[in-house]
Amino acid sequence: MAEGLRERKKRQTRQRLSAVATRLFVERGFAQVTIAEVAAAADVSVNTVYNYFEAKEDLVLPPDEASPARIADIVRRRTPGQSAAGALLSQLRDEVRRRDRKLGLTEGFAPVLEMMRAAPTLSARLEELGRQMTDRLTALLVEETGAGQDDPLPRAIAWQLGCLHSLVFAEIGRRTTAGEGPEAIAEAALALLDVVESLLSEQVLSYAVRKG
């Protein structure tokens, strides 16, 4: 379904608020900037900011991009014949090739990453997000495979896929901090995905294949 005018304007406003806030956070530090200052810089009311973002951390980690359901949604959308691991590997490769902004594969991301790492609440949010992603994926795998609630296999698979997801982000972050450009980082990330796939067991790679 095509995006309507209202939805497009809301998305553009949300992106502008996030961009303005991130610029201020990078310049002055996350803890040193208030929502009121973000609103003033964006020429909107404080209520408008809260209409789009429930918490200050959401301005840097928008829920539609940094979602607890991210990995589960990727697996849920897999095509017939594709496994849970195959779906995640395919999605990550596609995002890397597209230099997707949610991976941080954009010019000028290094200061943003530095700002995020210096903010305890953002670091805590990222850590909790990783746990939630694994929990959501576990629940989906239990539901789709019909595994018992005490069966450790779905959680073990979800944990491995969650670690794969985190590893890619960590590698991108490490290379970004080292001063590498998006093109070189993308090539390294794709190589890393190839290595990880070669190391995954057949049980992981063939788990939860979607039937046609």
UniProtKB/TrEMBL annotation:
Signal peptide start-end: none
**Which residues does the UniProt record annotate as the domain HTH tetR-type?**
11-71
Q: Name one GO molecular function term.
A: DNA-binding transcription factor activity
**UniProt entry keywords in alphabetical sequence:** DNA-binding, Transcription, Transcription regulation
Q: Which residues bind DNA?
A: 34-53
- What superkingdom heads the lineage? Bacteria
User: What Pfam families does the annotation carry?
Assistant: TetR_N
Read off the PROSITE patterns from this record: HTH_TETR_2
Q: Which InterPro entries match?
A: Homeodomain-like_sf (IPR009057), HTH-type_TetR-like_transc_reg (IPR050109), HTH_TetR (IPR001647)
Output the PANTHER family linked to this UniProt entry: HTH-TYPE TRANSCRIPTIONAL REGULATOR BETI (PTHR30055:SF234), HTH-TYPE TRANSCRIPTIONAL REGULATOR RUTR (PTHR30055)
The protein here is known as AcrR family transcriptional regulator
